Every structure is written in C-alpha cells, then in structure tokens.
Amino acid sequence: MFNIERWQEIFETIRKNKLRTFLTGLSVASGIFILVILLAIGQGMQNGIAKEFENDATNRISVWTGITSVGYKGLNPGRNIEMDNRDYEMAVAKNQDKLELKSGVYSMWGVLTTYGNENGSYRIEGVRGDYQFLENETLTAGRYINQGDLNNFEKVAVLGNRVNLDLFKGKNPIGEYVELTGIKFKVVGVYTDPGGEREETRIFIPLTTAQRVFNAGDKLRSLAFTLGKEDNFEKALAASTAFSEQLEADLKVKHTISPLDERAVNVNNTLEHAKRFYDLDTMIRMFFWGVGICTIIAGVVGVSNIMLIIVKERTKEIGVRKAIGAQPWSIIGMILHESIFVTAIAGFFGLIFSLFLLEIVGPYIEMDFIRNPSVDFSVAITTVIILIVAGAAAGFFPAYRAANIKPIEALRDE
C-alpha cells in the first residue's frame, strides 16, 4: 500500500545527506554501466565471430597438401605432395551418402587478365558448380559453372565483383570475352562474396578447363566439402570431425605419408574452429559477467554501509517506533524501501546511460571480431532484476539490525 509518509522520510534522508547519497549512487550506477558495456562487448564478439564464419559455408572442410616432414617406409622427408582427381574421386565415392557439397580446386595466382585496354593480375580458380555455395557467393548477374561446362571443357568465366569493376567499369560483362594469359574466356556470371573485395578479386572457370588449358594434367590444389545436415551442433561436429580424420588418414595411406606427419596433409574444419571460438566467447562473457557483478557488489557494499550509518543515526527514532507498537517487519520494510529506492534509481541512470551510449556508438564499431556491440531486452530486464536484488541485499543486514534494536537501549542512545 502506498505510504506517503515513508516516501517523505526517504526524500528527507536523501536531502540531508546529498553528497553521501550521490557518491553511493554513483558507485552503483558505475557498476551497472560497466556490466552492460561488458555484456555488449561480449555480444559484439559473438556478432564478429558470426560475421567471420559467413565468408564460407559454416560446415566446410578444406584439404590441401604440403611437404613431408617425416621419413616413412624408406622415403625421405621433404617430398612435395600433390593431390589429383583420383583423390577427389576416392573421397566422394567413400562418402557419397554423407556429402552435401563437393569440389576439387585448381588455383593459379597472379594471372594476367585483359579486357580491351584494361588489365590486372587476379587469382584464377578451376572449380565445380558446388563451389559457389562452398564459398557462400551470390550471383549478381548471369550464372555459375555447371556440369556442361565441365564435361565440354568450356572456356567460360565467372568474375568477382571487384574484377568486374576493374575491367568493365560498369559495363555489362555478360557475353563479353576476357583474356587469361592470352586465352579468351567468355564471361557468364558475376558474383559477390560476404568476405568483401579480397574475396571478389578472383575469377572462377571450370576445373576441367583449368587443368587442360594451364597444363595441370589431373592435379588439384585443394579439396572442399560440406556434410549433410544433422539434428544438432554436437552431432554435426562429431560427424565433421570423423570425416576429417578419416579423409586425412586415407590421403596419407594413398600418398605413403607417415601417420605422424602433421605438415604433409592439412585439413581445416570450420565447425571445429567455430566451436573453439564460441567456447572462448562463452568463457569471455562469463568473465565479463563476473567482473560486472563484482563491480555491482562493491556498489552494494557502499549502499549497505550508508544504510548502517542511517540506522545508527535513527536508533532513537526506531526505539520510539517500537515502543509505541511498531512491528519488526515494518521497521525492516522502512529500511529496505529506502535501500532499494537509492539502488534502483542510481542503477537505472547507469543502465540508461550505457544503452544510450551503445545506441550512438555501437553501430560504428566494426573490428575483425567485434561488430556492433549491443544488449537485447532480456539483458536489460536481467539488470533490472539485479538492481532490485542488490538493493534488497544492501538493506537486509541494516534492516535486520534495526528490527532487533531493543526500545529501552535505543532510547538511551546518544
């Protein structure tokens, strides 16, 4: 029930102790402000990690080879391991029921590309049709590589948006011809990539054409796969890890590589990286919660000390109240009321200021692993609950002490 006299007492106490109340409230507001900012940074890290994994398919498994570092079966270390079409076919045949997307890749760097009087050096990649989705690319014009291109060794090319802008200067490139080291390729598509311009400075051509035109035989630079969907992340991670380990083992057997060699065959599993990143993000967010809560506790201790001082100052008044029949619960309610009020008002100022700051500054923060730090409605509600609990905790012990004051001893207090 609303009690105007109690509110008058609270405001009178605050008026008499303006500086003390302000400093105490400032500590609580600072605690809430720090907590919200830290939680926003944690959310920004999660946003940044999610953005990083948008660049490619989220469950992509990439394989490439290097130089052996361990001698094996009479073969010396230092052998350069090269994959070929048979490696790709072996992986596909053995895991046909598990695979969703698949492609072999033959890459060339710094290939001179010419259109009319414009030219530049770009990365050329021979791929299969699934590679568009393995790279998470979106076509803005035309089409991608298809099976007919592969079967017929067609000289067609799909340009990254940056290549398109460099060579065609806004002109429609579809149907035009570009020269790759003097060999004409018909432009059939243009794509964009969430990875930005760095990923858009590439040109894709049919894998079979790349191997024939650039005298690669049946060689491949890398393999790329995704597995079918699973019911949950843990199952997907387990299936992905098992596939990666088996594929690595198969390639080592085929190319006579020591099982202990960690350099000859390299497997990159994005799900494993995602789990490590998200586990790290969870730990950081828990640490932020801990720091924020500890900061709030420091403020609560300040409020509690102030309430103890107030109880001490009002000992005689409390004794009089009890002498004329005031119940212990009413004394406790009086102290808790004031404690929760001071804590809540100060905390709301800290909360509102932090949300205002994030609304203004947050959208402009775009770093590699921190993007648009923010907090959602559930976090705001959580901080409100924390404020109420903190206020009650700050006032409980002073209120308990006040409720146990004996009227006779209180009246004797000086």
TrEMBL record:
The membrane topology noted for this protein in its Swiss-Prot or TrEMBL record is: Multi-pass membrane protein
**Mainly localized where?**
membrane
- Name any one Pfam family assigned in the record: MacB_PCD
Name all MacB-like periplasmic core domain ranges: 21-239
Subcellular location, record wording:
Cell membrane
Q: Which UniProt keywords apply?
A: Cell membrane, Membrane, Transmembrane, Transmembrane helix
Q: Where is the ABC3 transporter permease C-terminal domain?
A: 291-407
Q: Where are the transmembrane segments?
A: 21-41, 286-311, 331-357, 377-397
Top-rank taxon? Bacteria
The family assignment reads:
Belongs to the ABC-4 integral membrane protein family.
Please give the name of this protein. ABC transporter permease
Source species of the chain:
Aequorivita echinoideorum
